[in-house]
Amino acid sequence: MEVQNYDIAILGAGPAGASAALCLSGQGYSVVLLDKHRFPRDKTCGDAMSPDVINQLSKIRPSLLERFNTNEHRQRMIGVKAFAPNGSVLEINTLKSSNRDGCVISREEFDNVLIEEVKTCQDILLLEETEIKEVNRIPDGYSLKGPSTDIACKMLIACDGINSFVARKFANHKLDRKHHCGALRIYYEGVEFESREKIELHFIEDVLPGYLWIFPMANNKANVGIGMLSEYVSKKKVNLKEVLERVIKEHPTISPRFAHAKPLETVKGMGIPLGSKKVQLSSDHLLIAGDAASLVDPLTGEGIGNAIRSGRFAAQYAAQAIKDQKYSAEYLKAYDKKIYSMVGPELKFSHFLQKLMRGPRIANFLISTTSKSKRYKRLISYLFEENHFFGDWAKWSFYKKALFNRRVKG
């Protein structure tokens, strides 16, 4: 089999990989994007897209945002309802002046939006249903081999997900249950909602640290799921499937809403790589992005925005490495610094809040106190306007604004 040579190979065509490919298009590099699946394909996820996701799409190219905005499977999201263990409810709405809401859309649809945009790029080779069995270092980069594939590249961008064998082999990534979440998802039809434009987070005592979610989708569907820190799942021997089924059948306020609902599939599981621990994001000729880089918010579980963000910057730093002909691990550490300078403080503080929410009393206090404060609720609404719903509220500056009622520079 003849070796095919490329400047940049992107392994994994999810949000991070597809975004990296789109950002590299038109720059004059030979780029190949590989994925073991054919799109569209199902991807187990909560499917909630924060305003930051839409913000990231807008930074890639106008045609991509237009393609996304015209997708008929989007369910508009203008707010969130968070339920404490004691039943207290915090309801958050976007400001009327906000020009960009979030949405709920299946990953099958969302990822395919990105892939369809990639297909318009004549200088990007997309190889679907292409499984890579072996990745090895070679003098000038990496070798990627599969049953029908033999590729050599100067730069490799690894976007191969939570179980990334590239990250394990070349960046020493290991499963750490303290920084990993186990989760389940099941699609329903006919779940009752007070508002189909607000997602719901239920902080139930049996699920802390974690939550049960009920997200309204288009066409009378709903994404229902449960997620819990893997360390506690193992320590407490929690059967998430049994807890999810019990809540749907027996919870006094949730169960009645499923009276006429029917499941559209069996329960599906997934792992969520939390960004509560710094990991190595680069090595010689290598950059790691998306779930392979463990950039998911430790409290909310939202990771699509950071996946796209990391894909964008991986493209930038890979292109610069080729331009400068510098591929060393030391040179590429600049990528790690860039990513963590942007999302590190947010992930760190979100991890702090996650640890607070491990007990029902603190969860009750935080949700109840915030729900009674117009100032807190107004500030959270302001964050919608700034397109950082799942992000900025977890920063220390938020609390300075809340306590002193003034804007903070930064």
Walk me through this protein's architecture.
- The structure is a single chain.
- With 410 residues, the protein is an alpha+beta fold.
- It has a domain at 4-75 and 102-175 and 276-354: FAD/NAD(P)-binding domain (3-Layer(bba) Sandwich), CATH 3.50.50.
- It is 36% helix and 24% strand.
- It is built from twelve helices and 19 strands.
- Strands 1, 2, 8, 9, 10, 11, 18 and 19 form an eight-stranded mixed β-sheet that branches.
- A hairpin with a 5-residue loop joins strand 5 and strand 6 (89-93).
- Helix 1 packs parallel to helix 8 (304-324).
- It is globular.
Shape: globular
Which structural category do the helix and sheet elements fall into?
alpha+beta
The gyration radius over C-alpha positions equals 21 Å
Mean pLDDT across residues = 91
Second-tier CATH architecture of the domain at 4-75 and 102-175 and 276-354: 3-Layer(bba) Sandwich
Under the CATH scheme, which class of the domain at 4-75 and 102-175 and 276-354? Answer: Alpha Beta
Question: Which ranges are low-confidence, i.e. pLDDT below 50, for 5 or more consecutive residues?
Answer: 383-394, 402-410
Within the CATH hierarchy, at the fold level, what is the topology of the domain at 4-75 and 102-175 and 276-354? FAD/NAD(P)-binding domain
Quaternary state of this entry equals: single chain
Number of helices, where a helix is a run of at least 4 consecutive DSSP H or I residues: 12
Query: How many β-strand runs?
Result: 19
